[in-house]
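Notebook entry, structure prediction.
Reason for the run: the old model in the group folder had no record of what sequence produced it. Starting over properly, with the input documented here first.
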Amino acid sequence: MPSVRWHAARTRIGLLVLPIASLVALTAECQSTKPSPSGSGGSHSEAGTGLAGAGRSAGRGGTASGGLKDMATDAGAGGAMADPPLAASGDAPCDSAIWSPVPGANACNKRSADVSQWCVPARKWKSCGNGCLVAPAGLLAESKFNRVLRGAVSAGYVQGELWLRTVEVNEKLDDSSDFTAVTRIRDDAVVGAVLTSSSDPQCSFVGTGGHSPLLIPAVVGGRLLAGHVSATGPITWQAHTLPLPTTQTTLFDAFADQGLWGVTFHDGSVVVADSRDASAWVSVVPPGGGVSYSSAARGKLVAFPAWHLDALQETLDGWGPDRQQPLTLSTGTDNVISVAISDDTLAWIGVKGADWLSGKYDSARSYWAPTSTIEQGPAAIVDGPALPLSPVGRDMDVAGDWMAANGCFPNAKSAGDCRVMLIQRSTQQVYLLKPPDGIFWTLLALSPTEALLAESDVSDASSTLWLSRITRIAAKSFPTWVAPL
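New structure, fully documented this time:
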């Protein structure tokens, strides 16, 4: 029965927060219910990280000559474990000899690949117009892993490169295997790959959203195990699994430069693991407060929206390993709904309105500040331009001169009523990316020289669950793709 199959699929998916049920429900992305003035908690619309989908061959405009060369891109728990059998015959890409057990995950039959021996061809990128390339999202479309789960995608610009993490599963969602890959967008190189085959519902991948593509989180025996990917070596796995007190809402990752990563949980807590050898969480925010549905980390700075009952306001708070308590970073009366961070800039979106908890805003505005001076207070904060689309989704990013976020026109009725908003910080101008007719784009990540987008067909009903295509737009070609406000 389909209902039984779907229930089993949700159990297998574990903590994955599935995308919203319809495109227009993108409005729910920015809804969050905080404790009422009496302090009692509330529920949240557990939307995914945006929409993308299936249906069209990646072929607008023919094959791009030279592949990626057409893009204007300057970006520059462990213990011993038995060797369990690999997944069922034919599941393992390349030769089974390149796969080795993941420390601490023998109960879940997890294997990681020696990617120096990777044999699967790279994605086939095709031109989709001026400065535009499009490709299938998955790497193993011809195998049993024939679909990419939209809610498990994560992308980001880290250490001078754009990265993408995908989780591929069987389309019927009645199989217990999954395949996770981390690719470097510049050359589509696979830098990390993990294969799982287990019927245990306490073994699952974790859908995080946000910009933590170099983090591979997984539930093992009801606890959280994480692998850290780098471009220069094998995956570094946490020496210990860590507790999961409740459902996670976001993950943030600065492991690449500080050995620090963490989780925001549905009980209101925010926790950090401060090294590969961490055997317990470092508490940043204790349970019992409002839930954070956006977070970001870079270097020694972790940032997240936080509900303050005394002020009845959602502010942007920051924390670092040299600080015992979080510090409120934002000013003014806006309620902060989302945050992003680059190597040198912290950016966020603040909204006003009596019904902002329901995603209905009187206004929405962009803000940013240098990470080096953010703790100096108002003098460091730039009030950016007001955003023309409302509601605004939780997905946003900042890199170089650009900031971007998803949004929909008021009273949106279809996918065509939603856009990616681009904010040029140097001019404080806002632009809307206009996709070709019948196509819908949502933001995955920004680099200083390009935007990485999820692409779907407006008519595709399955786009809330599956990601079929990814699109790259060169920043120098943004003028080709913007529509008037």
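Summary: The CA atoms of residues 138 and 178 lie 12 Å apart.
The old model has been moved to the deprecated folder.
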